[in-house]
Amino acid sequence: MVWVPLGHLRTHRLTVQRPSNNHCPKMSVAWLLDWSWSLDGLRDCIATGIQSVRDCDTTALTTVACLLVLFVWYCYHVGREQPRPYVTVNSLMQSADVNGLQNGYVYCQSPECVRCTHNDGLNQKLYHNLQEYAKRYSWSGMGRIHKGIREQGRYLNSRPSIQKPEVFFLPDLPTTPYFSRDAQKHDVELLERNFQTILCEFETLYKAFSNCSLPQGWKMNSTPSGEWFTFYLVNQGVCVPRNCRKCPRTYRLLGSLRTCIGNNVFGNACISVLSPGTVITEHYGPTNIRIRCHLGLKTPSGCELVVGGEPQCWAEGRCLLFDDSFLHTAFHEGSAEEGPRVVFMVDLWHPNVAAAERQALDFIFAPGR
């Protein structure tokens, strides 16, 4: 039998390895030592913290407390803040007389017309539509639209009288009464290549004017003198199926245009006819986000378009681009023998409206929204 000395073994280790007969767990000496050290450390930490507070300057503590209170108050105030009241469309336009004459232009008062119907709370509705769009898609690229809707009243009221869109003004867009052909080069060239196609379909339609009554599909517009007729294929973003069936090739051509506005209330496509002796009173268009394109079909002498005080003449087979949010008018002072002035009119996107903005504006100003 070999005897092994136990001088180097710790007794508390033996205690842990050899529990008592009654099986009651005993706390090891090492655990007690660790616990004692932890309590001492915690006491020292608390004492150090208290001493640090005592040593801190009272003014600094008061300042921190005040800032904290102000921060809490600010969060509460922002959380309870309601959207600011917006200026409605009624206050953005001049008051109408008994005949519905505003800005020298007779309004149709139709409940479907986005320009002629003045709904209270329009700006709040537009802001709601923008928020709904951002929730579905993204706020990215919406800065100008958000700015335009929030400050619509200020923008419209502060605009010079030469340019005052009546429904929606998008800020920070370059402004000019007329645009060069290169502004929407692809669509301009496509329209001009199809000049004869559009002209032939118009001449077929115009034969119906031999009767005294207004032919089906045509609309007569208010003018101080003469007659102004329009035949819409797309009216405020809504296709007119019966009219489109009468001009199938022209309607298909619209689908080939890259920048045609066809999905919101600011988009129109129509044939516009001015009889000799007609004057269209000066008026403003509803928005600056579009360019109005006129393709000359029949352009007798004595016809002019005046936009922002600058006159231009149409030419057959050529496109004329202008911003109709400027004050504009048109007239036909030619003789009756020369016949009517006829243009094919289509609304195109302003070249400086980004793709993301176009998508959002189609959503916000969707027909019926």
TrEMBL record:
Has the keyword Transmembrane been applied to this entry? yes
Q: What is its main location?
A: membrane
* Keyword presence, Transcription: no
Q: Where are the transmembrane segments?
A: none
Function per UniProt:
May function as 2-oxoglutarate-dependent dioxygenase.
Q: Family membership, please give it.
A: Belongs to the aspartyl/asparaginyl beta-hydroxylase family.
**Where does this protein reside within or beyond the cell?**
Membrane
Molecular function GO terms recorded: dioxygenase activity
* A Pfam family reported for this protein in Swiss-Prot or TrEMBL: Asp_Arg_Hydrox
Please report the name of this protein according to its UniProt entry.
Answer: Aspartate beta-hydroxylase domain-containing protein 2
> What UniProt keywords apply to this chain's record, in alphabetical order?
Dioxygenase, Membrane, Oxidoreductase, Signal-anchor, Transmembrane, Transmembrane helix
Q: Which GO terms describe its cellular component?
A: membrane
Q: How does it sit in the membrane?
A: Single-pass type II membrane protein
Q: Which InterPro entries match?
A: Asp/Arg/Pro-Hydrxlase, Asp/Asn_beta-hydroxylase, IPNS-like_sf
| Domain Aspartyl/asparaginy/proline hydroxylase positions | 192-351
